[in-house]
Amino acid sequence: MSTEPVLEVESLTLAAKSKEILVNNISFSLARGESLGLVGESGSGKSLTLRAILGLLPRGVEQTGGAVRSKVSSAMVFQDPRGALDPLCPVVKQLAEVVYYRQQVSRRAARTIALELLERLGLPDSLRKKDRYPSQLSGGQCQRVVIALALACKPGILLCDEPTTALDVTVQRQIIDTITSLQHELGFAMVFVTHNLAIAANLCSRLYVMKQGQIVEHGETLSLLQHPADPYTQMLIDSVLPLPELELEGSRQ
Amino acid sequence: MMNSRRTLTGAQGNNGSYKWLGIALVRALIVILCVMTAVFFLIRIVPGDPAKMILGEYSTPEALKNMHHTLGLDLPLWEQFIRFMKTLFTQGDTGNSIIMGTSARELIMQRAPVTLLLILIACVLAIITALLLATAAATHKDKLLDHLIRIFPAITLGMPIFWVGILLILLFSVRLGWFPVGGVGEGFTGTLRSLALPAITVAFSQIPTLVRSLRAQMLEVLESDFVVTLRASGIPSRVILFKHVLRNSALPTLMLLGVNISYLIGGTLVVEQVFGIKGIGSLLFTSISNRDFPVIQGIALYCALSVVIISLLIEIISWWLDPRTKGKQ
Amino acid sequence: MTTTTPDIQLPEGKKQVNGLRRIWNTPSLLIGIIMFAVLILLALFIPYLSPYHPTEQNLSAFLQPPSSTHWLGTDQLGRDLFTRLIYAARTDLTIMVLAEIIPFCTGVLLGMLSGYYGKWTDRIIALITDTFIAFPFYLIVIIVAFASGAGERGIYITFILVGWIVFARVVRGLSASFREQEWVASAQTLGLPGSRIILRHLLPNVLPQAVVVLMTDMVGLLVAIVTLGYLGIGIAPPTPDWGTMISDGQPFITTAWWLSAVPGFAVVYTGIALSLLGDGLADIWRKK
């Protein structure tokens, strides 16, 4: 896995305007085509780290130290797919707009490419005939559109900020499968942020555990899960609910 | 009182389905009925005898009795009410002018065009200026420009609209001579030129509220995930600002204008007086000095009806324009 | 995206304001207090500060420009403008405060009832509110003030009729969200009477915000008083009032523009002071 990294984050520190430190001195690097998981509870600074990599920190947050180095472009998939789309703009138009500016093609060609992308992501054909707004699509469909938007940028790194948390459990699986198959096909690297250890373990070869803005532990997924060194990691592992039958058997002893 | 009343009554318009439209229409109808009743009672709940006001303090009992009869005030209250409603529904009128003898409705309709034109120009001016200022403030948040624009509403809140008009006359008509001091000019350009200052005055009273809300709205939109998505996708920020952010901030502002339409009309009536424009406002003041009750009632009725209908239209338009209300296919 | 962030948030329960330090740390409140205090002090002590009488005419010294004897000049009847300006503050501010008392009380009460009980009480109050709001504020003020007779009486009647709506609307929203809180529901099931919940628990919760609204509303009321004066159906001359002063000065706009301009600035000054007071109070109550 040790090829030349596509992304290097070096002692990145982010602070609020009030000088409160939100992300403290974190470092990691990402190889081409690799998947890296950032896990931790909400408010631990995972999403801010992604925004820093993207280069678009929210208002009131500043980078006070460290550096983010990357040779390729990155694109992001958000937690709330509806919020990530302009509610007043038809989805096809939004996608075509990104294709138009990013891939330097004509408006007409951009629309064709946009429709192809949507089809590839398994969205229904009805989008082609009539303008559909984000509010008229389901959460899972919106998330596919958001992924299409990200792919339209032809990213070297895909940043995923809890892309399944806001979705139904059945849809979560489909979205994860879509992302993995696209990754195999297109070969982008991925930083996957989640608080769901199970998903992270399935997707990522390496895990970084974050707590209160700091990385408390990191390592290869399997060894980290089998031999967690930090009590917080242990707690995260314990918080993954076993299936109910197993629990019942366990309580009967 | 201007700013504190600006609750968005139409905010519930987003939760979908045509049921909302029906409820809005029924509500407006009920309010219209209440408005009519209120106009009837308007001169009856305040102390004082309308007949005495018309004839003056030292009128004879005989004359008072006659006046009571002319006004129909000698009838029992419920009968007066039925008569009032009957004229209202059959003729859309509130009776004949005591002074002119002609229908109050006709008098109002004669004066309405210039007032409506003034309101229209003021609205357009207010919206354009508010959009520019709010965009400037939101994109320069916490910089000097933003602070200046934010102080603006606090200062203008206490500015009497007629006084603003007088200062504008002083500056642009007396000192610079750009506009006429008062009255309405001849022809199309003459009318526009003479309505420019009054329209600016009316717009001026609306701009602070609009800017404040639009700025807050734009800041919220600028922070939303979809703007980050668009930015990250490499769309130029000018396109994001004008195509996406402005559109998303415009709807709530349109609603706000609907809520404020009542102030706009009220302000226009006063401003007409400052600039000597012969519109509804000047009709109101002549009728007041002539104690011409049917005409005063008519003005109150038509103003309130316009407010209800315009706000309803704006609510419906925003609902129509917002795809979020359409629900799933 | 559909909701505007409210300028003021619901304070989380009753808090003691710990005195001067709090005020000192809130610049807007401090400036507001100072500005307002200056005005009040001037208004209180004007008889000792000025050698002139507000209504005494001096026809040999009319329309004088500002000088060392007449700080702001004199009007068309030779009365000292500065003296009249401050006496007018007495008139206008007194009416402003008195006219707010009844609307404030009824508005807060009706708002609480409407928000807390909901259902029919709420619908009826909402309907009355919607009806009143349809009438342009100035139109109703002008008509009622005129019909009930020009002068102070008309102003009081007008504001008793329409002034409560602002408070009712704000308090209604607050009360409705208050009712949603869990402990209120549990208090109700335990059989605590509604009147007790409203007076002991709801009132202290809604009062701070109502007071903040009161500050901005007073600005609107002042502007309305002045407007009525300007239109000649407010305070009758020769009692000094900013509105009549502006209208008296209007014919001399080309020669003595300050006659109209200065009283307007006095209104704007008061408006800024009250706005700052309101903002400052909101800030204090918002902080924990």
UniProtKB/TrEMBL annotation, chain A:
Membrane listed as a keyword: yes
Subcellular location: Cell membrane
One Pfam family named in its UniProt record: ABC_tran
Keywords: ATP-binding, Cell membrane, Membrane, Nucleotide-binding, Transport
PANTHER family from the UniProt entry: DIPEPTIDE TRANSPORT ATP-BINDING PROTEIN DPPD (PTHR43297:SF2), OLIGOPEPTIDE TRANSPORT ATP-BINDING PROTEIN APPD (PTHR43297)
Entry similarity comment: Belongs to the ABC transporter superfamily.
Annotated protein name in UniProt: ATP-binding cassette domain-containing protein
Protein's organism: Paenibacillus phytohabitans
Automatic annotation (TrEMBL), chain C:
Transmembrane segments: 29-49, 93-117, 124-147, 153-171, 210-236, 256-278
Signal peptide: none
Stretches of the chain forming a coiled coil according to its record: none
Gene3D superfamilies registered for this protein in UniProt: MetI-like (1.10.3720.10)
PROSITE patterns: ABC_TM1
Localisation per UniProt entry: Cell membrane
Record domain ABC transmembrane type-1: where: 89-278
UniProt topology in membrane: Multi-pass membrane protein
Claim: Cell membrane is one of the keywords in the record: yes
Major localization class: membrane
SUPFAM superfamilies (alphabetical): MetI-like
Pfam families noted in UniProt: BPD_transp_1, OppC_N
Keyword annotations from UniProtKB, A to Z: Cell membrane, Membrane, Transmembrane, Transmembrane helix, Transport
Family: Belongs to the binding-protein-dependent transport system permease family.
Protein name, UniProt field: ABC transporter permease subunit
